[in-house]
Amino acid sequence: MTITSPKPGTKRSPKRNHHDDDQQRVILLLDMDCFYAQCESVRLGLDPDIPLALIQWNSALAVSYPAREFGIVRGDSYEKIREKSKGECVCIHLPVTTLKDTVSPTKGGGCQQTAPISKDSPKNNTADNDSIGHVDGDDIKESYDAEFNQPKNIRDEMYKREKNRMRNKNEGKACLDRYRLAPARIFALIDELFIDVTAFCNKPEISRDESNNNHASEEVDSPSTEMQFRSTCQADAPLSLKETAICDEKNLHPDEIKAEKALVLGCHIARTVRKAVFEELRFTLSAGISTSKLVAKLGATYGKPNGQAVIFPGAITKVMNDTQIKKARMLGGKLGKKVIGLLPENETTMGSIARLLSLDDLIKSIGEESGRWVFDACRGICTEEVKSTLNVLPKSITAFKSFNGVGYPELEKWTELLARDIMKRIELDTSRNNRVPKSCTLGYTTDYGGPWIGKS
């Protein structure tokens, strides 16, 4: 069931950034570490070193970094997780809206239930695991605080009730509102964010004296404030670089690193943002800093978890030689599979493309536009602009449930559950974004992975 909404009337068209040819682009990618699992760790006030797995229907949906040390991977069953960790890994099931719940719209971002909290043991308790502490307010910050900033005694109660308690998919449908709320508070949309800081990082350097003189002037306007901030960034950037992993550092000359002043400044901005998010919200981020969106995203993988990495131009070739094609941005799906199919069996990296496939080979096999893009991408060249996500809203709201074959009376219950769920989210979206949906599409399939039958 999908509801499609029009674009809000107060739409702002994102401005495109046009950079001079002689400017070094500086692109940051900020990514929330092990997002789903971290949401639960922060919500319950757990020590980040506690191994945790988020479960959906007896299958691991997300695995924290401490849990991964036991060899736990996505898809592991509850029993497998407990076996691998010898009982040390904590399992938390994602929220479930059950068939028997009376679900009412809540501005708090979660699935509110009117039933009181049971005093039974966590394993046998049938109350929904996000029924504590919601407020009826449409402010994102207020909603976030209600979900993630409960008092310690409430957190302890929730943890005791939810720890290692499994659910059955016949109980109801998964509720992901909690995991939509956290990135909305941090990034306004999703669990990662690109930032183009090229213009700021390429401005001429200023001296401390020049900054202080501007700050002491009678009119402290925006330019002087920015100048003071920039002066502080310049002074602190070397320290931020020391806390940044430098990809292929051993093969980079110190003078080469020193010359990349704009990227070094970008490292400081990334560190500053990560520090601010942690101090305010207790979420850790990883960051990648480089000259394009594609390479910056690769850089973030070298910084995980809770760190950052910079890929200077001189290190791009080495990084591409080490990067599997399917791990590169935009190449994890069908396009990547097609490109891999053009290479010898043991050649599966971005560097393999650069060495073995010509531009003509790529254009002939995957088309003009895709061929040229892949030809550049495998060399770390990507001119894609960073688009603003401010005021960018989802174009549709979807509720989905898969289940075994059922008869009509039970099917009616599931349909009603989906309808309640999607209407709750529509009311929340309307209160926040002042818009209403214009169409509704109902779809179903009787063959997993097969074609859908739908009508709007």
Brief summary:
This protein has 456 residues and is an alpha+beta fold. The chain is 41% helix and 12% strand. It is built from 18 helices and 14 strands.
Gap from first CA to last CA: 10 Å
Order of strands across the widest beta sheet? 8-2-10-11-9
- What's the total count of β strands? 14
Helix content: 40-55%
What are the main properties of this structure?
5-stranded mixed sheet; 18 helices; alpha+beta; 4-stranded antiparallel sheet
Secondary structure elements and their pairing?
Blueprint: E1 2-4, E2 27-32, H1 35-43, E3 52-55, E4 60-63, H2 65-68, H3 78-85, E5 90-93, E6 96-98, H4 140-148, H5 152-162, E7 172-174, H6 177-186, E8 192-196, H7 198-201, H8 208-215, H9 222-242, E9 245-246, H10 254-259, H11 261-281, E10 285-290, H12 293-303, E11 308-310, H13 316-322, H14 334-340, H15 350-356, H16 359-366, H17 368-377, E12 396-398, H18 408-433, E13 439-444, E14 453-455
Parallel strand pairs: 3-5, 9-11, 10-11
Antiparallel strand pairs: 1-12, 1-13, 2-8, 2-10, 3-4, 6-7, 13-14
What does this structure look like?
- The radius of gyration is 25 Å and the shape is globular.
- The strands form 4 sheets. It has a 5-stranded mixed β-sheet. A 4-stranded antiparallel β-sheet has the order 12-1-13-14, covered by helices on one side.
- It has 456 residues and is an alpha+beta fold.
- 41% of the residues lie in helices and 12% in strands.
- A hairpin with an 8-residue loop joins strand 13 (439-444) and strand 14 (453-455).
